[in-house]
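Final report, Chapter 2: Outcomes

The project's central promise was a pipeline that accepts a single protein chain and returns its three-dimensional structure in a standardized token representation, suitable for archiving and comparison. That pipeline is now operational. To close this chapter, we reproduce one record exactly as it appears in the project archive, with the input sequence first and the structure output second.
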Amino acid sequence: MSIDEQVRAYPDLDDMDDVDRRDIVRLHQLGYAQELRRRMSGFSNFAVSFSIISVLTALTIYGYGLGTGGPADLVWGYQLVP
């Protein structure tokens, strides 16, 4: 059975365009359901927030380190401090 025939077998997909219908049918052929999870655990929220703050802090400190210690300070500092 072709995808076009399978698309016609889903009458509740009539309000979608052809590409969306084909995608949904193909996902079902592969054994997946179309879903979008909009949940975020506390740890995930913390991890995203920490990453953003770390990048902003590093960019701020990078300018300070470059101005006060120069490139050599940044190269050796990143290798010695962690």
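Archive annotation: The mean pLDDT is 77.
This record, like all others produced under the grant, will remain available to the consortium after the project formally closes.
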